[in-house]
Design a protein that fits this description.
This protein is mainly α and 246 residues long. The chain has helices at 5-29, 33-39, 48-72, 74-89, 92-110, 116-130, 147-153, 158-167, 179-185, 190-200, 209-212, 240-243, and strands at residues 42-43, 46-47. Helix 1 runs antiparallel to helix 3 (48-72) and helix 7 (147-153) packs across helix 8 (158-167). It is elongated. The protein starts with a helix and ends with a helix.
């Protein structure tokens, strides 16, 4: 059976584009990275990190497939361009309108003009929707803390936290492993690891604010109001603009 490489390239480009668009939509609807990592968020069986990896690699595949497709069809493409040059000159108003629309969308997106700003506003609203699910996190990106650091932030000794988790039936081989790694080993989530600690040490839920934010001693006396950008989150610890970097 003969294999038609040109047809294969066209089909690959089309299918890859569909996958790229779908993964982009799901990433738009996903929570912030720290929320997704803490709660073990998944969509269609994939984590946010996996969707991001899929989206990035599909982007590369689409670019390569498009380039190969253009090479295979270069003669036809270039001939079409040359045949339409004269006709295109009669479309000066259409060309101007298309260029203007492209410029308006580009500049409006960069300068945060409505209605383009609403796309990002909706995205922030969606991310805020997921936020309460990670409200019990003791610090931002606490899933990246080693067990030693998490214990210290909660005012506990790493050894007693390790024993408590082992008593809960969890495997803890190394206190220098991250909470995320320990959760993965036990096929659970960082949030569940933290919940197990709280069950054993209820007082850990009421650690000082500085410790809950993972700040050093010299930062714990600072007043709230670390929000950044356009008044989002001012006076509320870390503001939404700072949160939305994921």
């Amino acid at each position: 059976m003969r294999f038609y490489f040109k047809g294969f390239t066209s089909l690959l480009l089309s299918i890859s584009f569909v996958g790229l668009a779908w993964s982009g939509v799901l990433l738009y609807l996903s929570p912030r990275g720290r929320v997704a990592n803490w709660t073990g968020w998944t969509m269609m069986g994939l984590t946010k990190t996996q969707w991001a990896a899929l989206h990035m690699n599909l982007s590369i595949l689409v670019i390569i497939a498009a380039a190969v497709h253009l090479i295979f069809n270069w003669s036809m493409f270039w001939g079409y361009i040359k045949s339409k040059v004269g006709w295109g000159l009669n479309l000066k108003w259409e060309i101007l309108a298309a260029a203007t629309l492209m410029a308006v969308v580009s500049v409006g997106s960069v300068r945060d003009w409505p209605p383009f700003s609403e796309v990002m506003a909706w995205n922030l609203w969606i991310k805020d929707y997921w936020e309460p699910k990670a409200a019990d996190a003791p610090a931002i990106h606490a899933e990246e803390f080693t067990l030693e650091r998490l214990a210290a932030n909660l005012g506990l000794a790493a050894e007693e936290v390790t024993k408590a988790l082992q008593d809960e039936g969890l495997v803890v081989a190394d206190t220098k492993a991250s909470v995320s790694q320990i959760a993965q080993t036990n096929q659970t989530t960082p949030q569940a690891i933290h919940a197990a600690i709280r069950r054993r040490f209820p007082q850990a839920a009421y650690a000082p604010l500085g410790k809950r934010l993972g700040l050093g001693p010299d930062m714990q006396d600072h007043q709230p109001g670390m929000g950044l950008g356009k008044g989002r989150g001012m006076g509320k610890g870390l503001g939404k603009a700072a949160q939305s970097v994921d």
